[in-house]
Please model this.
Amino acid sequence: MQTEDELIEEITNSEYKYGFYTDMDADQAPKGLSEDIIRFISAKKNEPDWMLEYRLNAYRIWEKMEEPEWAHLGYAKPDFQDLHYYSAPKPKVQLDSLDEVDPELLETFKKLGISIEEQERLTGVAVDVVIDSVSVATSFKKKLGELGIIFCSFSEAVQDHPELVRKYLGTVVPTTDNFYATLNSAVFTDGSFCYIPKGKKCPMELSTYFRINEANTGQFERTLVIADEGSYVSYLEGCTAPMRDENQLHAAVVELVALDDAEIKYSTIQNWYPGSKEGKGGIYNFVTKRGLCMDRAKISWTQVETGSAVTWKYPGCILKGNNSIGEFYSVAVTSNHQQADTGSKMIHIGKNTKSTIISKGISAGQAQNSYRGLVKINKGATNARNFTQCDSLLMGNNCGAHTFPYIEVNNQSSKVEHEATTSKIGEDQIFYCKQRGMDETTAINLIVNGYCKEVLNQLPMEFAVEAQKLLEISLEGSVG
Amino acid sequence: MIKIENLHASIEGTEILTGINLEVKAGEVHAIMGPNGSGKSTLANVLAGRDEYEVTEGSVDFLGEDLLDMEPEDRSRAGLFLAFQYPVEIPGVSNINFLKTAINEAREKRGEDPMPAKDFLKRVKEKSKLVELDGRLANRSVNEGFSGGEKKRNEIFQMAMLDPKLAVLDETDSGLDIDALRIVANGVNELKTKDNASIVITHYQRLLDYIVPDFVHVLYQGKIVKTGPKELALELEERGYDWIIKELEEVTA
Ligand SMILES: Nc1ncnc2c1ncn2[C@@H]1O[C@H](COP(=O)(O)OP(=O)(O)OP(=O)(O)O)[C@@H](O)[C@H]1O
Ligand SMILES: [Mg+2]
Model:
């Protein structure tokens, strides 16, 4: 007699015999999404059963979900059955010299002040430098290893640290969270994993930069950072080099867990291809980022977003522990036909929790930039505090800025402050700068950098310098 | 240095400058006085190249070049400085960074290397002393939260840093207390050489006790209607402008 469990297993496994699951050598899954495809991905990655179950569960939920509509975003919805959900990690195309690289890309590199070596590394030109950076990465890994810090790809973590992944995956962004996060939970291909042990302070900024030569993480990236009690880590994501990608849809999920007294600083520079000046092409960037703070923990999000055709993201914090702190500092630039709907969600659950939101939007051209923020104070969150400041800067007459603050207060002892300003870049300011001998472009850069200063100051030094250059390039020729 | 001939300028269709003639030579200080709304700031702004104003007639020669044909930033780089009547605030941009950007951009256009940080800081120290500008103001955002007097002092500090050939000071004395006035005036005097010149726009003879002008001009309804030696300023202070206007009417009548 079969037990009920065995029966279920047989039924679910029987699908393996059919479909294309047997075709294990395929480098790419056929287009479309189904349970078979998910089993295929999971098998390709040699995942344990619990991981497959996690994915399947997410897929079943996703199937019943509706893609959300956004009042201030307009774009052609992706056809989810017309995508490949798995491609074998391909080594980057090896080029023999920079002469073979898109000149426009090189021009941007030059403006960013990226060294020749770096340009070669980023564009995949085969040179010794690559080996250098691998060796740097290896020596970093060794040093981290001595402290018990784990920093590896998500796939490696599933193999080598399944207990940690299993314990925390989906605890901050549950599978049911939202359409894109649920899709990501079903089909994510890779991403980063980081664990800082109790009481350890990570001695260097952890950067995806050191992992760039590893397998292409693809369009459904998954990141999990866990800071154990009393630990500290600063994590950098992205880089200023323009990222071109064949995949139009990007739906990443980032989960941060800061246990008691821990602190996580997470900085992002996002510069995906924004599409042409006429608004053709470009990346759709639908990201779910959230952190969980336990007692006295602190999570700080800082982001400089200049890329993507459509951006939808609300990094936030669940302030579950008493005396925990959440911060969000953001600069979002939209120019030409770019659209952004970003903001932050701060959920106050613990007592004496504090959150700060500083959002700076810059719109130029025909761009639309919306701030959408949620501050929620739960009943038990005695003495919770929030301060929100969201500023919009308009360049030209055809762009728009919109602010949608949602505030929900269920505890009378809390204090929520919201300030918002919209300003146009001042003719007076520009003229003042010109009178002192600056070109219009220099003047605008100076004014914009000043406007973003509070946010840029939050970035680690080197990243801040890069971010400044990036802002300059993004706004080039925006006012005329 | 500068030669303004028959300058006419209007804004939004209203003619404000109605034929200005003025020549300033190297080493000279010219004062321009005149009732509110007579066009003093307009003249300053037109010289600096503000594009809201339309020059409809006339010419301006600055150091042998056609000033009106130059972009505002090129006028600045050629040595024209305007101390604004209402200096603008630029949040988040430190005074130091602002000046460094300005100076180095001008140097770059001349094909020179950026000023070494050491020299720059030395200059900041030296010049902020000259106008007794509180060291902290140099690090604060440009004019943000500065008091009225501090803003004016900051204009002179910037002028000292940029070392212009021709400085136009638009009511730099208004809003200054008596000590600040002396400090600002001393700054201007210290910077005076036989190779540079200034045009000082003011309502008060008081400033001219400190900055002694070679000529005093009266601007009225967009024209210079009277020019005299420094004593003219004293007379204006005592008698106001009515007598000049009367004189004028008698002539035209
Ligand atoms: N945008 C504008 N449209 C119409 N008239 C203007 C505009 N801007 C300035 N004016 C006028 O131009 C005239 C000259 O102004 P200006 O600022 O040059 O005077 P001023 O001599 O500097 O006066 P004050 O002593 O008050 O500083 C004034 O009558 C003013 O109202
Ligand atoms: Mg005036």
